[in-house]
Amino acid sequence: GFTRDVRVRIGAVMQCPITRVTPDTIECTTAIVHADPLYVPGYTTDQSEPIVVYVADGPTAVCTTAASASCGTLQLKFGGMQLPSIAAVTPLSGQSQLLTLTGVNFVGTETIQAAGAECNVTRRSIDDARDSVSTVYCQLPADAAAATGKVNAVSAPYGIVPSTRTYTLAMSVRGVTPSRGSVAGGHLITVSGTGFPIDAQAFVGGQRCQVGPLYRGTSQNLSHIVCETSALPSLATLDGVITVTSARAAASATCTCTYMYDTGITPIVTRVTPLTGQEGTEVNISGSRVTLERPEFTVAGVPLPNATLGELQWTVRIGRLPGVRAPIMLRYRLGYAWVSAQEFAVYPFITGINPRWSSYNGGQNITITGSNFRGTAGDTIRVTVCGHECPVTASTHSAITCVSPPRANPTAYAARPALERQAYQSRLAATPYLEVPQAASANVIDGDATTSYNMTRSLGISLAIGLDLGDQVYARIANVGYATPPMRHHELD
C-alpha cells in the first residue's frame, strides 16, 4: 500500500530520504543529522529504533514483530568505535600522488575524495582483529586541478565519513614553447604543466601573459595554458622565468625553464610618415627588420589590409577609422614590432551643422556632419555648443545628433515698454538688446583624441520675457539667426 507521498522515519526524529518507492518496496538512505558523527540531536547512546512509514496528516505503519516475523528494530550505532574513522593521511600534498589512509571500521566499499578530486582506490588492508579494513590506498588523477580541501571517505552504509586532514593538490610548470620572441610582446606561447585551475594565470619575466581564447579551464587544458606575451617596458633582452598562479587555489608554481625576450629578433619601427591622415591616406613605415616577413597591420585594433612592400619599407592605406591617436602595430610570427613613439592620429573633422540656429532655451536637435566620429553612441563622444554640453542621442562615423543646451546668463536691456491690452490676453511690446559672442563654435571631442576642432557657424538666439500682469503669466519667445561675425548688439523684436 505504499504511495509516492509516503515518508520514512527511524524512531522519533531521524528522517530517511527515499530514493525509490513501489507499491510494496521502499528504498531510503539514512541522513547525516550532524557534522559530528558522535552527536545526533535526541540521541546520547546506541539505540534500537523502529522503522515508521507514514503519510503527512495520514495513516502510519510501524514495522514490528507483530506485523511480520522479518520486522523488528533498527540498531543505531553512535559510538566512534562503530563508525568508520580516518586517523591519518599520507602524503598531504602533491599531484598525481598515491595516498594512504589509515583508520578503523572501514567497510571495504568506500570511495575517497581529496580536495574535491576523486581518488581511485587501488587496494585495501584488512584489520583481522576488528574484522574490518584498516588501510585504504588510492591514486589521485594526473589532471586534477590545484586546490586545498578535506580528505573524506564516502561509505555506502554511513554516508560521508569526514576527517580533519587537509590535502593540497599542487600544480607544476614543466615547459614553454616557443621559448623566445619579440620584446614588444604579442607572441602566442604554450605553458605546459599539471593541475592548472580554471583561473590559472601565467607570468613571463614578471609580465602578465594574457590568456588566449584556446584556454578555458576544461579538463583537456588542465595541463596547458595558451597565452599572449606582454611587452617589456624597455627595449632590452630578458631571460624571463615562467610562473603560474591561482588565486582560487592560493597556489603558485615556477618553472626552471625560461622564455627569452630577444632584441635580436625584434623588428623595430623607426619612421612613420605622415603621422596624421584620413580615410585613404597612404602611410610609409620603415625601420630595422620590418620587411623580413609580411606582418599584420592594425591601428587601435582595426586591421589595415591594404599594404604593399616597397624598398625597405611598407606602405599601408588608412581605412575608415574613428578619431584616434595610436601607434600602427605590426604583428609578426614572433610577436609585435617595437614602435618608438610613432603614433598615428586620425582627427574628427566637422564639415557642417544643421540647423544653424537654436533657441536660447535649448531642446533643438542638431546634426553635425563630418568624418572619423565614433561608429556608435557612447561615453567617448562629447559635443559642446558655445561651451555648453550638447547631449548626444545618436552617432555614426559621419554624423552626430545632439540636443542643443540652453544658453546661460544672456545679458538683455529692455527699453520703452508699452502695454497692449487684448481680449483675454496681456502682452508687452519691448525692444530688448542681447549680448552675443564675437564667434560661436561647435566642438566635437572624442575620448581617444585630445584635440577638439572649432568651426564657426551661425547659431540662434532667443529671449523669453516673463511678465506677471495680474490676470496671467505670459511668455513670449523670439528666434532669430545671425551671421558671423555678428554685431556686438543685435536687436530682437
TrEMBL record:
Top-rank taxon: Eukaryota
What the entry lists under Gene3D superfamilies is as follows:
Immunoglobulins
Q: Which UniProt keywords apply?
A: Signal
Tell me where in this chain the IPT/TIG domain is found.
Answer: 83-168, 170-260, 347-444
Q: Does the keyword Signal apply?
A: yes
What SUPFAM superfamilies does UniProt report for this protein, alphabetically? E set domains (SSF81296)
Record-linked InterPro entries: Fibrocystin (IPR052387), Ig-like_fold (IPR013783), Ig_E-set (IPR014756), IPT_dom (IPR002909)
Under which name does UniProt file this protein? IPT/TIG domain-containing protein
